[in-house]
UniProtKB/TrEMBL annotation:
UniProt protein name: Lipoyl synthase
E.C. numbers: 2.8.1.8
Pathway entry: Protein modification; protein lipoylation via endogenous pathway; protein N(6)-(lipoyl)lysine from octanoyl-[acyl-carrier-protein]: step 2/2
Keyword entries, A-Z: 4Fe-4S, Cytoplasm, Iron, Iron-sulfur, Metal-binding, S-adenosyl-L-methionine, Transferase
PANTHER family for the chain: LIPOYL SYNTHASE, LIPOYL SYNTHASE, MITOCHONDRIAL
Provenance organism: Parvularcula lutaonensis
Length: 318
């Protein structure tokens, strides 16, 4: 499993498809997004549980800046279906290549880890598996069912791939498994998809989230954006409107951070004041929950945010 310190030193192993790209300078981070190195006892305990179960986390693979804070509280986002992605997004630090066979024992180990950590809320994500007929849908179902059996009191949030060019039943199968929150990130504005997320399609991703609401209106839906990639404020606001038209409940907005010199460069660091402005705008547009800050990531404070989102829905209905 990769560690945080070898990311910059091993780009050839993680991202062979990016080696012909010219280097982009990595800007010095402003004071408001610098974090301390993870050294706490809770962090070490979480790492040991994850390692002992032979699991992969997006926290490590994507070099999340919040890993120290989250793992100290035993909040780890499990990444299923392996650690090699079939896509080559310009922003992502997860390895790219041809994945191996699906590990059919993984659902059991994930469920055991969730129970051992005593999680009230868990986030499950995955790499893209374009090589599989169903894009990994059945494996998501198996993981959800295993967690329900091992830890019935745990609420489950999934962060899925887009199931692009997969049969419609694949997505429906995951929806019908009944996760409490169905998350799929749009990542950026439509204009930047070709350069930032070339393997995906903006309107397909939006339609996926709309489909969740059509099939399971009670399920919370969630999506996220990165900013600092060259988007305009007006473009972000248009995406918010598209999300609300699709019935999305929860919006996350965070600062894009460049993993290596071969990845898309940071165009600018968005200030905390601008993030606050985005939050105010999003809440005015009707989202039940908004998390917008430089360090916001899809699963950051997911347990507390889920509780707040449930309360907001109940208050709205009441």
């Amino acid at each position: 499993m990769a560690t945080l310190i070898d990311i910059e030193n091993r780009p050839a192993l993680r991202h062979p498809e990016k080696q012909k790209r010219p280097d982009s300078p990595i800007q010095r981070k402003p004071e408001w997004i610098r974090v301390k190195a993870p050294v706490s006892k809770g962090y070490a305990e979480t790492r040991e549980i994850v390692k002992s179960k032979g699991l992969v986390t997006v926290c490590e693979e994507a070099a999340c800046p919040n890993i120290g804070e989250c793992w100290d509280k035993k909040h780890a986002t499990m990444m299923i279906l392996g650690e090699i992605c079939t896509r080559a997004c310009a922003f992502c630090n997860v390895r790219t290549g041809l994945p191996g066979a699906v590990d059919t024992d993984e659902p059991r180990r994930v469920a055991e880890a969730v129970a051992e950590m005593g999680l009230n809320h868990v986030v499950i994500t995955s790499v893209d598996r374009d090589d599989l007929e169903d894009g990994g849908a059945q494996h998501f179902v198996d993981v959800i069912e295993a967690i329900r059996a091992a830890s019935p009191g745990t609420t489950i949030e999934i962060l899925t791939p887009d199931f692009l060019r997969k049969p419609a039943w694949a997505l429906d199968k995951v929806i019908d498994a009944g996760p409490d929150v169905f998350n799929h990130n749009l990542e950026t504005v439509p204009r930047l998809y070709l350069s930032i997320r070339p393997g995906a399609r903006y309107y397909h991703s939006m339609r996926l989230l709309e489909r969740v609401k059509e099939r399971a209106p009670h399920q919370f839906t969630k999506s996220g954006l990165m900013v600092g990639l060259g988007e305009s404020k007006e473009e972000v606001m248009q995406v918010m409107d598209d999300m609300r038209s699709a019935g999305i409940d929860f919006l996350t907005i965070g600062q894009y951070l460049q993993p290596t010199r071969k990845h898309a460069p940071v165009e600018r660091f968005v200030t905390p004041e601008e993030f606050k402005s985005y939050e105010v705008l999003a809440r005015a547009k009707g989202f039940l929950m908004v998390s917008a800050s430089p360090l916001t990531r899809s699963s950051y404070h997911a347990d507390a945010d889920f509780a707040e989102m449930k309360a907001a829905r109940e208050a709205k209905r009441g």
